[in-house]
Design a protein that fits this description.
- The structure is a single chain.
- With 187 residues, the protein is α/β, with parallel strands linked by helices.
- Helix content is 37%, strand content 10%.
- Helix 4 links the parallel strand 2 and strand 3.
- The longest helix is centred in the first third of the chain and has 19 residues.
- It is globular and about 50 Å long.
């Protein structure tokens, strides 16, 4: 982190960068307030969002190694982005099966239930390809409970919080044919 921003210790993005953990943003043009600003550059946002999709898809391609995907409160954008990234990974031959998928929200919505919990955890033959979970409740209650259960499970398994120091245990496969995008390829 080159800049010494005053609240970087509280920033999810700054912490992800410091730990080398990929973090992505998926913009839907026209849905965010910044689109109304006169200096908004749709081409720049499009390039950045596409690059983030490639990074996200490369991470989704590794879910079959016992990974998990968690959707916290996104009723439309993330379920759609996840399903497309999963399709890209599987179509490129990555065996993305045997993972856990969970949706956490205050109400049950069609897209997260279908595109995160149910459809991705079924194999093409209709047999279970993973496990899907849907948790309905207030985030301020669900998140601390989930966090504590993860910490307890890791402690019981003898794992530290940052076993891989922010690096995946295996190299990230590229979601596209040709050149791949790594976490260090950000502008």
């Amino acid at each position: 982190l080159v800049e010494r921003f005053p609240y970087r210790d509280h920033s999810l993005f700054a912490q992800a960068v410091a730990l080398g953990v990929p973090i992505t943003v998926h913009v839907a043009v026209g849905t965010d307030i910044v689109v109304q600003h006169p200096q908004y550059d749709g081409a720049a946002w499009g390039r950045a969002s596409y690059r983030d999709f490639q990074i996200f898809a490369s991470q989704v391609a590794m879910l079959g190694r016992g990974g998990a995907v968690l959707n916290w409160g996104s009723a439309v954008i993330l379920p759609e982005v996840f399903l497309k990234a999963l399709s890209v990974a599987r179509n490129l031959g990555h065996p993305v099966y045997g993972f856990a998928a969970a949706d956490f929200d205050m109400v049950a919505h069609y897209r997260p239930l279908t595109n995160v919990v149910k459809r991705p955890t079924r194999s093409p033959q209709g047999k279970p390809a993973g496990r899907g979970f849907s948790f309905v409740g207030h985030h301020e209650l669900l998140f601390p409970l989930f966090y504590q259960s993860v910490i307890e499970a890791m402690t019981a398994a003898g794992l530290s919080r940052f076993t891989h120091r922010g690096e995946p245990p295996h190299p990230a496969p590229s979601p596209s044919r040709g050149e791949g995008r790594g976490e260090g390829d950000r502008d």
